[in-house]
Amino acid sequence: MEFVTMFRLRSERTCASIAVVLPESSARFLWSVISSAAYCAMLFFATTVNYLDRQVLSLTWDEFIKPEFHWNEYHYGLITSIFSIVYAVCMLFAGRFIDWMGTKKGYLWAIGVWSMGACMHALCGIATEAWVGLPDAAALRAVEAGSALAATIAMVSMYFFIAARCILALGEAGNFPAAIKVTAEYFPKKDRAYATSIFNAGASIGALFAPLTIPLLAKAWGWEMAFIVIGALGFVWMGFWVFMYKKPSDHPKVNAAELEYIEQDQHEVVDGETVGKEQEGEKISFWRTLSFKQTWAFAFGKFMTDGVWWFFLFWTPSYLNSQFGIKMSEGLGVALIFTLYAITMLSIYGGKLPTIIINKTGLNPYAARMRAMLIFAFIPLLVLLAQPMGTISPWFPIILIGLGGAAHQSWSANIFSTIGDMFPKSAIATVTGIGGMAGGVGSMILQWFAGWLFVYADETAMQFMGFEGKPAGYFVVFCICAVAYLIGWIVMKTLVPKYKPIVLD
Fold this sequence. Notes:
- The chain has 505 residues and is mainly alpha-helical.
- The protein folds into 2 domains: 42-257, MFS general substrate transporter like domains (Growth Hormone, Chain: A); 288-505, MFS general substrate transporter like domains (Growth Hormone, Chain: A, Up-down Bundle), CATH 1.20.1250.
- It has helices at residues 30-69, 73-101, 103-120, 124-132, 137-142, 148-172, 175-186, 189-221, 223-244, 256-262, 286-289, 293-324, 331-344, 347-350, 353-361, 365-378, 386-390, 395-422, 428-460, 470-495, and strands at residues 2-10, 15-23, 269-270, 273-274, 463-464, 467-468.
- The radius of gyration is 23 Å and the shape is globular.
Protein backbone atom coordinates (compact mmCIF):
# COMPACT_ATOMS: atom_id res chain seq x y z
CA MET A 1 0.00 0.00 0.00
CA GLU A 2 1.10 3.54 -0.62
CA PHE A 3 0.21 6.83 0.87
CA VAL A 4 0.90 10.36 -0.33
CA THR A 5 2.79 12.72 1.94
CA MET A 6 1.94 16.30 1.07
CA PHE A 7 4.07 19.30 1.89
CA ARG A 8 3.07 22.82 0.99
CA LEU A 9 5.50 25.57 0.08
CA ARG A 10 3.89 28.93 0.54
CA SER A 11 5.08 32.32 -0.50
CA GLU A 12 3.23 35.59 -0.47
CA ARG A 13 1.62 34.96 -3.83
CA THR A 14 1.92 31.28 -4.59
CA CYS A 15 1.18 27.92 -3.07
CA ALA A 16 2.56 24.68 -4.38
CA SER A 17 2.19 21.12 -3.21
CA ILE A 18 4.97 18.57 -3.35
CA ALA A 19 3.73 15.00 -3.38
CA VAL A 20 6.12 12.15 -2.71
CA VAL A 21 4.80 8.58 -2.85
CA LEU A 22 6.42 6.40 -0.21
CA PRO A 23 5.95 2.88 1.12
CA GLU A 24 3.59 2.79 4.08
CA SER A 25 5.70 0.22 5.86
CA SER A 26 8.53 2.67 6.46
CA ALA A 27 8.40 5.20 9.26
CA ARG A 28 11.74 6.75 8.40
CA PHE A 29 11.05 8.70 5.20
CA LEU A 30 10.30 11.99 6.88
CA TRP A 31 13.71 13.59 6.51
CA SER A 32 14.14 12.93 2.80
CA VAL A 33 10.67 14.33 2.10
CA ILE A 34 11.45 17.45 4.12
CA SER A 35 14.79 17.80 2.36
CA SER A 36 13.17 17.41 -1.05
CA ALA A 37 10.58 20.05 -0.16
CA ALA A 38 13.28 22.40 1.13
CA TYR A 39 15.38 22.01 -2.01
CA CYS A 40 12.33 22.61 -4.23
CA ALA A 41 11.70 25.78 -2.25
CA MET A 42 15.29 26.90 -2.78
CA LEU A 43 15.15 26.15 -6.51
CA PHE A 44 11.88 28.09 -6.70
CA PHE A 45 13.46 31.07 -4.94
CA ALA A 46 16.58 30.93 -7.14
CA THR A 47 14.49 30.93 -10.32
CA THR A 48 12.39 33.82 -9.00
CA VAL A 49 15.55 35.85 -8.29
CA ASN A 50 16.87 34.85 -11.72
CA TYR A 51 13.90 36.43 -13.47
CA LEU A 52 13.86 39.47 -11.17
CA ASP A 53 17.52 40.23 -11.92
CA ARG A 54 16.83 39.84 -15.63
CA GLN A 55 13.96 42.36 -15.59
CA VAL A 56 15.44 45.21 -13.53
CA LEU A 57 16.85 46.90 -16.63
CA SER A 58 13.65 46.55 -18.67
CA LEU A 59 11.60 48.19 -15.90
CA THR A 60 13.99 51.06 -15.17
CA TRP A 61 15.61 52.06 -18.43
CA ASP A 62 12.84 54.14 -19.99
CA GLU A 63 11.89 56.23 -16.96
CA PHE A 64 15.11 56.40 -14.95
CA ILE A 65 18.19 55.42 -17.01
CA LYS A 66 17.31 56.84 -20.43
CA PRO A 67 17.26 60.53 -19.33
CA GLU A 68 20.54 60.19 -17.44
CA PHE A 69 22.54 58.61 -20.26
CA HIS A 70 20.71 60.06 -23.28
CA TRP A 71 19.71 56.65 -24.59
CA ASN A 72 17.22 55.82 -27.28
CA GLU A 73 15.66 52.51 -28.32
CA TYR A 74 18.77 51.60 -30.33
CA HIS A 75 20.98 51.56 -27.24
CA TYR A 76 18.51 49.52 -25.19
CA GLY A 77 17.83 47.12 -28.06
CA LEU A 78 21.53 46.46 -28.60
CA ILE A 79 22.06 45.75 -24.90
CA THR A 80 19.18 43.26 -24.73
CA SER A 81 20.15 41.51 -27.97
CA ILE A 82 23.74 41.01 -26.83
CA PHE A 83 22.44 39.68 -23.51
CA SER A 84 20.31 37.13 -25.39
CA ILE A 85 23.21 36.03 -27.57
CA VAL A 86 25.62 35.68 -24.66
CA TYR A 87 23.01 33.84 -22.58
CA ALA A 88 22.31 31.36 -25.39
CA VAL A 89 26.01 30.63 -25.97
CA CYS A 90 26.77 30.36 -22.26
CA MET A 91 23.94 27.86 -21.81
CA LEU A 92 25.90 25.50 -24.04
CA PHE A 93 28.90 25.56 -21.71
CA ALA A 94 27.16 26.16 -18.38
CA GLY A 95 25.65 22.70 -18.35
CA ARG A 96 29.03 21.09 -18.95
CA PHE A 97 30.51 23.24 -16.17
CA ILE A 98 27.80 22.12 -13.71
CA ASP A 99 28.42 18.45 -14.54
CA TRP A 100 32.19 18.97 -14.10
CA MET A 101 32.04 21.09 -10.95
CA GLY A 102 29.20 19.20 -9.25
CA THR A 103 25.74 20.39 -8.31
CA LYS A 104 26.51 22.20 -5.07
CA LYS A 105 29.64 24.10 -6.14
CA GLY A 106 28.37 24.66 -9.69
CA TYR A 107 25.13 26.26 -8.49
CA LEU A 108 27.05 28.47 -6.06
CA TRP A 109 29.29 29.70 -8.86
CA ALA A 110 26.32 30.35 -11.15
CA ILE A 111 24.25 32.42 -8.74
CA GLY A 112 27.33 34.15 -7.36
CA VAL A 113 28.37 35.31 -10.84
CA TRP A 114 24.91 36.48 -11.88
CA SER A 115 24.33 38.27 -8.57
CA MET A 116 27.65 40.07 -9.00
CA GLY A 117 26.68 40.97 -12.57
CA ALA A 118 23.30 42.29 -11.38
CA CYS A 119 24.93 44.52 -8.76
CA MET A 120 27.57 45.73 -11.23
CA HIS A 121 24.85 47.52 -13.21
CA ALA A 122 24.73 50.05 -10.35
CA LEU A 123 28.37 51.02 -11.04
CA CYS A 124 27.76 51.91 -14.67
CA GLY A 125 26.78 55.48 -13.80
CA ILE A 126 29.91 56.09 -11.72
CA ALA A 127 32.09 54.56 -14.42
CA THR A 128 30.50 56.74 -17.09
CA GLU A 129 30.96 59.89 -15.01
CA ALA A 130 34.63 59.09 -14.54
CA TRP A 131 35.13 58.28 -18.23
CA VAL A 132 33.60 61.52 -19.57
CA GLY A 133 34.88 63.69 -16.73
CA LEU A 134 31.57 64.81 -15.18
CA PRO A 135 30.99 64.93 -11.40
CA ASP A 136 27.56 63.33 -10.96
CA ALA A 137 24.31 62.12 -12.49
CA ALA A 138 22.84 65.62 -12.51
CA ALA A 139 25.70 66.78 -14.70
CA LEU A 140 25.06 63.90 -17.10
CA ARG A 141 21.40 64.85 -17.41
CA ALA A 142 22.28 68.52 -17.92
CA VAL A 143 24.27 67.81 -21.08
CA GLU A 144 22.49 69.19 -24.13
CA ALA A 145 20.47 66.54 -25.94
CA GLY A 146 21.82 65.74 -29.39
CA SER A 147 25.28 67.16 -28.65
CA ALA A 148 28.52 65.29 -29.26
CA LEU A 149 29.01 64.89 -25.51
CA ALA A 150 25.53 63.42 -25.12
CA ALA A 151 26.31 60.89 -27.86
CA THR A 152 29.55 60.01 -26.09
CA ILE A 153 27.73 59.53 -22.78
CA ALA A 154 25.16 57.28 -24.43
CA MET A 155 27.78 55.14 -26.16
CA VAL A 156 30.12 54.85 -23.16
CA SER A 157 27.33 53.99 -20.71
CA MET A 158 25.91 51.46 -23.16
CA TYR A 159 29.22 49.58 -23.26
CA PHE A 160 29.42 49.54 -19.47
CA PHE A 161 25.91 48.14 -19.26
CA ILE A 162 26.74 45.55 -21.92
CA ALA A 163 29.72 44.40 -19.83
CA ALA A 164 27.54 44.04 -16.71
CA ARG A 165 24.84 42.34 -18.77
CA CYS A 166 27.28 39.78 -20.15
CA ILE A 167 28.36 38.82 -16.62
CA LEU A 168 24.70 38.51 -15.66
CA ALA A 169 24.07 36.26 -18.69
CA LEU A 170 27.11 34.11 -17.88
CA GLY A 171 25.83 33.35 -14.39
CA GLU A 172 22.13 33.05 -15.24
CA ALA A 173 22.94 30.44 -17.88
CA GLY A 174 23.79 28.03 -15.07
CA ASN A 175 20.44 28.23 -13.26
CA PHE A 176 18.38 25.72 -15.19
CA PRO A 177 21.16 23.15 -15.79
CA ALA A 178 21.91 23.15 -12.05
CA ALA A 179 18.25 23.08 -11.00
CA ILE A 180 17.41 20.19 -13.34
CA LYS A 181 20.40 18.27 -11.99
CA VAL A 182 19.16 18.79 -8.41
CA THR A 183 15.75 17.33 -9.27
CA ALA A 184 17.45 14.34 -10.91
CA GLU A 185 19.47 13.75 -7.76
CA TYR A 186 16.55 13.98 -5.30
CA PHE A 187 13.53 12.69 -7.23
CA PRO A 188 12.83 9.47 -9.14
CA LYS A 189 11.79 9.91 -12.77
CA LYS A 190 8.04 9.75 -12.14
CA ASP A 191 8.16 12.70 -9.68
CA ARG A 192 10.67 14.98 -11.48
CA ALA A 193 8.23 16.84 -13.72
CA TYR A 194 6.15 17.90 -10.71
CA ALA A 195 9.23 19.08 -8.83
CA THR A 196 10.40 20.91 -11.96
CA SER A 197 7.01 22.57 -12.42
CA ILE A 198 7.22 23.93 -8.86
CA PHE A 199 10.61 25.58 -9.19
CA ASN A 200 9.87 26.62 -12.79
CA ALA A 201 6.86 28.55 -11.44
CA GLY A 202 9.48 30.91 -10.05
CA ALA A 203 9.74 32.33 -13.57
CA SER A 204 6.09 33.39 -13.41
CA ILE A 205 6.46 34.70 -9.86
CA GLY A 206 9.55 36.69 -10.86
CA ALA A 207 7.63 38.17 -13.78
CA LEU A 208 4.72 38.87 -11.41
CA PHE A 209 6.74 40.54 -8.66
CA ALA A 210 9.02 42.56 -10.94
CA PRO A 211 6.59 45.33 -12.02
CA LEU A 212 5.22 45.52 -8.46
CA THR A 213 8.60 46.03 -6.78
CA ILE A 214 11.38 47.23 -9.05
CA PRO A 215 9.87 50.59 -10.18
CA LEU A 216 9.07 51.39 -6.54
CA LEU A 217 12.67 50.71 -5.48
CA ALA A 218 14.01 52.86 -8.31
CA LYS A 219 11.64 55.72 -7.51
CA ALA A 220 12.36 55.64 -3.78
CA TRP A 221 16.14 55.09 -3.72
CA GLY A 222 17.37 55.48 -7.30
CA TRP A 223 17.77 53.00 -10.13
CA GLU A 224 21.16 51.92 -8.79
CA MET A 225 19.61 50.61 -5.57
CA ALA A 226 17.08 48.58 -7.54
CA PHE A 227 19.94 46.61 -9.07
CA ILE A 228 21.77 46.28 -5.75
CA VAL A 229 18.77 45.19 -3.66
CA ILE A 230 17.50 42.64 -6.19
CA GLY A 231 21.04 41.43 -6.92
CA ALA A 232 21.81 40.98 -3.21
CA LEU A 233 18.99 38.43 -2.91
CA GLY A 234 21.22 35.95 -4.72
CA PHE A 235 23.96 36.28 -2.11
CA VAL A 236 21.40 35.58 0.62
CA TRP A 237 20.40 32.41 -1.24
CA MET A 238 24.05 31.32 -1.41
CA GLY A 239 24.32 31.52 2.37
CA PHE A 240 21.54 28.96 2.77
CA TRP A 241 22.66 26.73 -0.10
CA VAL A 242 26.25 26.29 1.06
CA PHE A 243 25.10 24.88 4.41
CA MET A 244 21.98 23.01 3.33
CA TYR A 245 22.67 21.07 0.15
CA LYS A 246 24.04 17.55 0.18
CA LYS A 247 23.52 14.77 -2.34
CA PRO A 248 21.21 12.04 -1.02
CA SER A 249 24.07 9.53 -0.93
CA ASP A 250 26.14 11.94 1.19
CA HIS A 251 23.34 13.14 3.46
CA PRO A 252 23.78 11.75 7.00
CA LYS A 253 20.03 11.73 7.67
CA VAL A 254 18.93 9.99 4.48
CA ASN A 255 18.60 6.32 5.37
CA ALA A 256 18.92 3.28 3.15
CA ALA A 257 15.17 2.97 2.51
CA GLU A 258 14.93 6.62 1.46
CA LEU A 259 17.95 6.31 -0.82
CA GLU A 260 16.45 3.19 -2.37
CA TYR A 261 13.26 5.12 -3.21
CA ILE A 262 15.16 8.06 -4.71
CA GLU A 263 17.39 5.76 -6.79
CA GLN A 264 14.68 3.31 -7.80
CA ASP A 265 15.34 4.00 -11.49
CA GLN A 266 18.81 2.45 -11.18
CA HIS A 267 17.13 -0.92 -11.21
CA GLU A 268 15.00 -0.12 -14.25
CA VAL A 269 14.87 -2.82 -16.94
CA VAL A 270 14.08 -1.93 -20.57
CA ASP A 271 14.04 -4.64 -23.22
CA GLY A 272 15.60 -7.09 -20.79
CA GLU A 273 18.53 -4.78 -19.99
CA THR A 274 19.20 -2.86 -16.79
CA VAL A 275 19.61 0.73 -18.03
CA GLY A 276 19.50 2.90 -14.94
CA LYS A 277 22.64 1.81 -13.15
CA GLU A 278 25.31 4.49 -13.12
CA GLN A 279 28.58 4.19 -11.31
CA GLU A 280 29.96 7.13 -9.37
CA GLY A 281 32.42 9.07 -11.48
CA GLU A 282 31.12 7.85 -14.84
CA LYS A 283 31.21 10.64 -17.41
CA ILE A 284 29.92 11.18 -20.91
CA SER A 285 31.81 13.50 -23.26
CA PHE A 286 30.25 16.65 -24.66
CA TRP A 287 30.71 15.51 -28.25
CA ARG A 288 29.20 12.14 -27.51
CA THR A 289 26.01 13.76 -26.22
CA LEU A 290 25.58 15.31 -29.69
CA SER A 291 25.57 11.85 -31.26
CA PHE A 292 22.28 10.87 -29.59
CA LYS A 293 18.86 11.49 -31.11
CA GLN A 294 17.60 12.14 -27.59
CA THR A 295 19.79 15.26 -27.40
CA TRP A 296 18.48 16.62 -30.69
CA ALA A 297 14.88 15.84 -29.75
CA PHE A 298 15.22 17.91 -26.58
CA ALA A 299 17.07 20.71 -28.39
CA PHE A 300 14.44 20.94 -31.15
CA GLY A 301 11.61 21.01 -28.61
CA LYS A 302 13.30 23.93 -26.86
CA PHE A 303 14.11 25.68 -30.15
CA MET A 304 10.47 25.65 -31.22
CA THR A 305 8.89 26.75 -27.94
CA ASP A 306 11.15 28.94 -25.78
CA GLY A 307 10.64 31.94 -28.05
CA VAL A 308 6.87 31.70 -27.60
CA TRP A 309 7.18 32.21 -23.85
CA TRP A 310 9.47 35.19 -24.27
CA PHE A 311 7.25 36.68 -26.94
CA PHE A 312 4.29 36.56 -24.56
CA LEU A 313 6.34 38.23 -21.79
CA PHE A 314 8.16 40.84 -23.89
CA TRP A 315 5.47 41.86 -26.34
CA THR A 316 2.15 41.65 -24.50
CA PRO A 317 2.49 45.18 -22.99
CA SER A 318 3.23 46.58 -26.44
CA TYR A 319 0.33 44.57 -27.87
CA LEU A 320 -2.09 46.09 -25.35
CA ASN A 321 -0.83 49.60 -26.11
CA SER A 322 -0.79 49.33 -29.91
CA GLN A 323 -4.10 47.53 -30.31
CA PHE A 324 -6.17 48.77 -27.37
CA GLY A 325 -4.39 51.97 -26.29
CA ILE A 326 -3.83 50.53 -22.79
CA LYS A 327 -0.64 51.69 -21.08
CA MET A 328 1.20 49.87 -18.29
CA SER A 329 1.09 52.98 -16.11
CA GLU A 330 -2.69 52.67 -16.02
CA GLY A 331 -4.57 50.55 -13.52
CA LEU A 332 -6.20 48.52 -16.27
CA GLY A 333 -2.82 47.72 -17.81
CA VAL A 334 -1.41 46.53 -14.46
CA ALA A 335 -4.53 44.43 -13.86
CA LEU A 336 -4.32 42.79 -17.29
CA ILE A 337 -0.63 41.90 -16.99
CA PHE A 338 -1.07 40.69 -13.41
CA THR A 339 -3.91 38.44 -14.56
CA LEU A 340 -1.80 37.01 -17.38
CA TYR A 341 1.05 36.06 -15.03
CA ALA A 342 -1.37 34.73 -12.42
CA ILE A 343 -2.93 32.37 -14.98
CA THR A 344 0.49 30.96 -15.85
CA MET A 345 0.72 29.66 -12.27
CA LEU A 346 -1.67 26.87 -13.30
CA SER A 347 1.45 25.23 -14.70
CA ILE A 348 2.24 23.86 -11.23
CA TYR A 349 -0.42 21.23 -11.76
CA GLY A 350 0.85 20.47 -15.26
CA GLY A 351 3.90 18.84 -13.79
CA LYS A 352 1.72 16.42 -11.83
CA LEU A 353 -0.06 15.04 -14.92
CA PRO A 354 2.66 12.51 -15.92
CA THR A 355 2.61 11.01 -12.41
CA ILE A 356 -1.17 10.63 -12.64
CA ILE A 357 -0.82 8.96 -16.05
CA ILE A 358 1.87 6.60 -14.73
CA ASN A 359 -0.23 5.59 -11.72
CA LYS A 360 -3.35 4.99 -13.83
CA THR A 361 -1.84 3.36 -16.92
CA GLY A 362 1.49 1.90 -15.81
CA LEU A 363 3.30 3.63 -18.68
CA ASN A 364 7.01 4.34 -18.34
CA PRO A 365 7.93 7.94 -17.36
CA TYR A 366 8.91 8.98 -20.89
CA ALA A 367 5.73 7.67 -22.51
CA ALA A 368 3.60 9.32 -19.82
CA ARG A 369 5.50 12.56 -20.20
CA MET A 370 5.08 12.65 -23.97
CA ARG A 371 1.36 11.98 -23.61
CA ALA A 372 1.09 14.90 -21.16
CA MET A 373 3.14 17.14 -23.46
CA LEU A 374 0.80 16.36 -26.36
CA ILE A 375 -2.11 17.62 -24.26
CA PHE A 376 -0.18 20.78 -23.42
CA ALA A 377 0.74 21.24 -27.10
CA PHE A 378 -2.93 21.58 -28.03
CA ILE A 379 -3.72 24.29 -25.46
CA PRO A 380 -1.75 27.10 -27.24
CA LEU A 381 -4.10 26.67 -30.19
CA LEU A 382 -6.47 28.82 -28.12
CA VAL A 383 -4.18 31.76 -28.89
CA LEU A 384 -5.57 31.65 -32.46
CA LEU A 385 -8.72 33.18 -30.98
CA ALA A 386 -6.89 36.06 -29.28
CA GLN A 387 -7.33 38.55 -32.11
CA PRO A 388 -10.97 37.73 -32.98
CA MET A 389 -11.97 37.73 -29.29
CA GLY A 390 -10.01 40.94 -28.76
CA THR A 391 -12.65 42.78 -30.78
CA ILE A 392 -15.00 42.15 -27.85
CA SER A 393 -12.71 42.95 -24.91
CA PRO A 394 -8.94 43.03 -24.17
CA TRP A 395 -9.57 40.61 -21.30
CA PHE A 396 -10.19 37.75 -23.73
CA PRO A 397 -6.77 37.80 -25.43
CA ILE A 398 -5.08 38.21 -22.03
CA ILE A 399 -6.86 35.13 -20.67
CA LEU A 400 -6.05 33.14 -23.81
CA ILE A 401 -2.40 34.24 -23.81
CA GLY A 402 -2.24 33.40 -20.08
CA LEU A 403 -3.51 29.88 -20.80
CA GLY A 404 -0.91 29.60 -23.56
CA GLY A 405 1.75 30.70 -21.07
CA ALA A 406 0.56 28.16 -18.50
CA ALA A 407 0.71 25.45 -21.17
CA HIS A 408 4.26 26.52 -22.01
CA GLN A 409 5.40 26.29 -18.39
CA SER A 410 3.79 22.84 -18.07
CA TRP A 411 5.46 21.81 -21.33
CA SER A 412 8.76 23.25 -20.09
CA ALA A 413 8.64 21.31 -16.80
CA ASN A 414 8.10 18.06 -18.70
CA ILE A 415 10.57 18.62 -21.53
CA PHE A 416 13.28 19.35 -18.96
CA SER A 417 12.38 16.08 -17.23
CA THR A 418 12.82 14.08 -20.45
CA ILE A 419 16.56 14.63 -20.03
CA GLY A 420 16.53 12.75 -16.73
CA ASP A 421 14.42 10.03 -18.35
CA MET A 422 17.01 9.37 -21.03
CA PHE A 423 20.45 10.43 -19.84
CA PRO A 424 22.66 9.41 -16.92
CA LYS A 425 22.94 11.99 -14.15
CA SER A 426 26.49 12.89 -15.18
CA ALA A 427 25.21 14.27 -18.50
CA ILE A 428 21.96 15.96 -17.43
CA ALA A 429 23.33 19.49 -17.01
CA THR A 430 25.31 19.25 -20.26
CA VAL A 431 22.25 18.28 -22.31
CA THR A 432 20.18 20.92 -20.51
CA GLY A 433 22.70 23.52 -21.60
CA ILE A 434 22.60 22.34 -25.22
CA GLY A 435 18.82 22.62 -25.25
CA GLY A 436 18.98 25.98 -23.51
CA MET A 437 21.19 27.33 -26.26
CA ALA A 438 18.80 26.01 -28.90
CA GLY A 439 15.92 27.68 -27.07
CA GLY A 440 17.85 30.95 -26.89
CA VAL A 441 18.56 30.90 -30.62
CA GLY A 442 14.91 30.16 -31.37
CA SER A 443 13.84 33.00 -29.11
CA MET A 444 16.18 35.48 -30.79
CA ILE A 445 14.83 34.54 -34.21
CA LEU A 446 11.21 34.92 -33.16
CA GLN A 447 11.76 38.25 -31.37
CA TRP A 448 13.67 39.68 -34.34
CA PHE A 449 11.04 38.44 -36.79
CA ALA A 450 8.20 39.86 -34.69
CA GLY A 451 9.82 43.30 -34.48
CA TRP A 452 10.50 43.36 -38.23
CA LEU A 453 6.99 42.12 -39.05
CA PHE A 454 5.24 44.72 -36.89
CA VAL A 455 7.13 47.57 -38.57
CA TYR A 456 6.48 46.10 -42.03
CA ALA A 457 2.79 45.51 -41.30
CA ASP A 458 2.35 49.06 -40.04
CA GLU A 459 4.16 50.69 -42.98
CA THR A 460 2.42 48.63 -45.67
CA ALA A 461 -1.03 48.32 -44.04
CA MET A 462 -0.68 44.55 -44.33
CA GLN A 463 -3.90 42.55 -44.43
CA PHE A 464 -4.38 39.20 -42.67
CA MET A 465 -7.62 37.43 -41.71
CA GLY A 466 -9.60 40.66 -41.63
CA PHE A 467 -7.02 42.63 -39.64
CA GLU A 468 -4.82 45.43 -40.93
CA GLY A 469 -1.44 46.86 -39.92
CA LYS A 470 0.11 45.88 -36.59
CA PRO A 471 -2.97 43.84 -35.51
CA ALA A 472 -2.47 41.75 -38.66
CA GLY A 473 1.19 41.29 -37.73
CA TYR A 474 0.26 40.16 -34.23
CA PHE A 475 -2.23 37.69 -35.68
CA VAL A 476 0.53 36.14 -37.82
CA VAL A 477 2.84 35.73 -34.82
CA PHE A 478 0.00 34.33 -32.71
CA CYS A 479 -0.52 31.70 -35.41
CA ILE A 480 3.16 30.75 -35.23
CA CYS A 481 3.02 30.55 -31.43
CA ALA A 482 -0.13 28.43 -31.53
CA VAL A 483 1.31 25.63 -33.69
CA ALA A 484 4.92 25.69 -32.43
CA TYR A 485 4.31 23.12 -29.70
CA LEU A 486 2.60 20.59 -31.95
CA ILE A 487 5.46 20.85 -34.46
CA GLY A 488 7.98 20.45 -31.65
CA TRP A 489 6.15 17.41 -30.24
CA ILE A 490 5.87 15.70 -33.64
CA VAL A 491 9.60 16.09 -34.33
CA MET A 492 10.52 14.92 -30.81
CA LYS A 493 8.29 11.87 -31.15
CA THR A 494 9.75 11.12 -34.59
CA LEU A 495 13.33 11.29 -33.31
CA VAL A 496 12.61 9.29 -30.14
CA PRO A 497 9.44 7.27 -30.75
CA LYS A 498 9.76 5.19 -27.58
CA TYR A 499 11.54 5.07 -24.26
CA LYS A 500 15.26 4.59 -25.01
CA PRO A 501 17.59 5.56 -22.15
CA ILE A 502 21.27 6.14 -22.83
CA VAL A 503 23.43 3.28 -21.56
CA LEU A 504 27.07 4.02 -20.84
CA ASP A 505 29.49 1.42 -22.17
